Amino acid sequence: LAKTTQPISMDSYEGQEVNITCSHNNIATNDYITWYQQFPSQGPRFIIQGYKTKVTNEVASLFIPADRKSSTLSLPRVSLSDTAVYYCLVEDRGSTLGRLYFGRGTQLTVWP
Amino acid sequence: NAGVTQTPKFQVLKTGQSMTLQCAQDMNHEYMSWYRQDPGMGLRLIHYSVGAGITDQGEVPNGYNVSRSTTEDFPLRLLSAAPSQTSVYFCASSSREELGYTFGSGTRLTVV
Which pLDDT score is estimated for B1? Predict the structure, then answer.
């Protein structure tokens, strides 16, 4: 399983764009990159998933370079309510279906 | 409301007691899994299931049992509770057609 490395914490101010980078040097051909958000006392919530290039939804964008050894989650114009832990995961949607492997995540704190 | 329901939300056990954490989903998902989360840590996989009648161990299975007799339910049994099992437990479900997993709101377990 490809391990991920991401910053332990980040700070931002309201209205700024936040980019959280995740490293996954050993990513395999069948692996997808997935990001989850977790608020205190809640279960993680799926944000976005991608395989290569760029994926955008109503919440975030995910940028994946051609070598796929890293990815960047971009949150546009963050607000106080975006303060949470963000997890980057690498999922093999073939052989490891049914389970997820989490790292420690990135604690994002948004200040007024 | 569709989703993953976990009961109870809070539980205090004495060392050596047994109990069952309940998890139910109404989305007809074939994949279900259990995680524990300790302070400042990411989630760790305990057991998972890819369908009714099929279960397998995750990263930290010792002290826990599971069964999957129906698609909807995936209970987690603590055989003989230990203080080291004090944690927050999350259940999640998904399917091959889904991009992400849906998590329950968690069970906070304290073993004294």
Answer: 60
